[in-house]
Write a structure and sequence with these properties.
Elements: E1 2-6, E2 16-20, H1 29-32, E3 36-41, E4 44-53, E5 63-66, H2 68-74, E6 81-85, H3 93-100, H4 107-118, H5 124-136, H6 140-152, E7 170-174, H7 184-194, E8 198-202, H8 212-216, H9 226-236, E9 238-242, H10 250-262, H11 267-280, E10 285-292, H12 301-317, E11 321-328, E12 336-337, H13 339-350, H14 358-372, H15 383-392, H16 395-407, E13 419-424, E14 429-434, H17 436-445, E15 455-458, E16 465-466, E17 471-477, H18 480-492, E18 496-498
Parallel strand pairs: 1-5, 2-4, 7-10, 8-9, 10-11
Antiparallel strand pairs: 1-6, 2-5, 3-4, 3-6, 12-15, 13-17, 14-16, 14-18, 15-17
Length: 499
């Protein structure tokens, strides 16, 4: 037996074990070729990637160290006695081999794979093999089966029985790729002010300068347990919270952590990812926003129509009432890119500030109107005017302020980055295009979203005139290193074309 040691090393989603090269109980060589080890005791077991250390101060010869996430998942106290066994590949990996060989998998086979992924029995290499095999080809039936498996592997929220809530539980999701497109924070208070429940669980940014949860966290606490979520929806008819705390479709979070570095982003996996989380969240009526533009995820109308049809097909089979809105993805929405700047734009719209970004306002009203028409009491075509009334009357702002108060204050006060650089127009002319991808990259290099005050403040949009030397946008950062990185990248290419 070895003594269990807790190591304060954050390995995020990966379980990592640390074994001393001079281990007194096992031959280290027995595990090196496998790259992993299974830690067992007291009816508990954990598969972990194995690292070998030579420093007794980290792990002694009679100890096994676990990284912080692995230690938490094993659930034993530090100092517990554990033993090691060579891990065996999960039986479901034979199904992955079959998929690599061109087989189509049925629902039960996909469910077996996803259960093992959720239980952290797959290494990153094994997950990558599954993702690449699915990216090579995937039938519509497999997309549906994968979505169902991902729903079954996590928590599923149920809203039946909550006092005063109708059967319609509304939700909205954008497939992403457009900086500043923070419409959810306007749509939710409009829809909630109407009285239609809209419990919005959102993600934090992975590759973008801000997710809805990052931006909402500028204004309020988003780390809300399920019971508190239910109270919020019962009393305010809406919330804007981080979905990670609720454990909705946890397999999706694991798959995404491998997808991103591999740049795998197929429409089949996108549909399974989004719909698994929405069904798990208890949504009955869902609006999907698909921005289409030259630097968006979806580049043309043909791609958009194919994606829309796949969403509709899978959504119908899952019992969702689902609609898809194809929107303009040719440039960022609003002026701010980054949590503090995007929160500024959102609140300006809700306050009916004349200087609020008109494009953000109109897009939010369009989407909110579509969702309001899920309500049987709203006649077809009347959703847009109802949404506008709720915004202009101040009802949406009052609902947002109530949601903020009920969710509680944010964990820290976020302020705009004080290191500022302006990127100037190279010539007189009209802004002809904005590169969404490049501007998002500059904002991330400036520190967003981890530094909530970092990002880009756009001063010119497509179609606006500019003179040589006038600022196109301002970069905000909080540290010198981030500021330098962002400036250097912007100098290589500003992301703005003036013609």
């Amino acid at each position: 037996m070895l003594t269990l040691r807790h190591l304060a090393i954050d390995t995020v989603r990966e379980n990592v074990a640390f074994l001393n090269r001079r281990c007194t109980r096992y031959h280290v060589e027995d595990f090196l070729g496998l790259g992993r080890v299974e830690v067992r005791n007291d009816g508990r077991s954990l598969l972990a990637v194995l690292n070998i250390v030579d420093d007794d101060a980290i792990v002694g010869p009679d100890e096994i160290g676990l990284s912080a996430p692995a230690f938490r998942r094993l659930g034993l106290a530090a100092g517990s006695a554990v033993h090691l066994v060579p891990p065996t590949p999960p039986e479901s990996f034979e199904l992955v081999r079959a998929k690599v060989g061109g087989a189509a998998l049925d629902d039960a086979q996909l469910a077996a794979i996803i259960r093992d992924v959720t239980d952290l029995r797959y290494s990153k290499i094994e997950i990558a093999a599954f993702l690449i095999a699915c990216a090579s080809f995937m039938t519509t039936a497999e997309v549906l089966g994968l979505t169902r498996a991902m729903i079954a592997a996590g928590t599923r929220l149920h809203w039946d029985g909550l006092d005063g809530l109708p059967r319609t539980i509304a939700d909205k999701h954008c497939i992403g790729g457009i900086p500043g497109n923070r419409t959810s924070m306007i749509v939710v208070p409009i829809v909630a002010a109407h009285g239609l429940p809209i419990p919005k669980t959102s993600s934090r940014a992975i590759t973008s300068p801000a997710g809805t949860a990052d931006t909402m966290e500028v204004l309020a606490n988003v780390d809300i347990p399920v019971e508190r979520m239910q109270a919020l929806v019962r009393e305010a008819k809406g919330c804007l919270v981080w979905g990670g705390h609720v454990r909705l479709s946890p397999a999706d979070d694991i798959l995404i952590s491998v997808e991103r570095p591999l740049a795998i982003d197929t429409r089949e996996q996108l549909v399974a990812s989004i719909l698994s989380k929405k069904v798990a969240a208890g949504s009955t009526h869902l609006l999907i926003d698909i921005p289409v533009g030259p630097s968006a995820k979806i580049r043309n109308a043909g791609e958009a129509v194919r994606l829309r049809k796949l969403f509709e097909h899978v959504g119908d089979r899952l019992g969702l009432t689902l609609e898809v809105a194809l929107t303009d993805g040719s440039q960022p929405v609003g002026r701010g890119i980054g949590p503090v700047l995007e929160a500024r734009d959102v609140m300006a719209v809700l306050r009916n500030d004349p200087a609020a970004p008109a494009d953000l306002r109109e897009r939010a009203l369009l989407l909110a109107g579509r969702i309001l028409e899920f309500d049987p009491a709203v006649r077809g075509g009347a959703g847009g005017s109802r949404a506008r009334d709720l915004l202009e009357s101040g009802a949406a702002l009052a609902t947002m302020e109530r949601i903020i108060a009920m969710q509680g204050p944010p964990p820290a006060v976020a302020t705009l980055g004080t290191l500022v650089a302006e990127v100037a127009a190279p010539a007189d002319g009209v802004v002809s295009s904005l590169d969404c991808y490049r501007l998002a990259r500059i904002a991330r290099l400036a520190g967003a979203p981890n530094d909530k005050g970092a990002g880009i403040d756009l001063l010119r949009k497509v179609g606006e005139r500019v003179r040589r030397g006038e600022p196109l946008y301002r970069i905000h950062a909080g540290t010198n290193a981030d500021f330098t990185f962002a400036q250097a990248f912007a100098a290589e290419g500003s992301g703005v074309v003036v013609g």
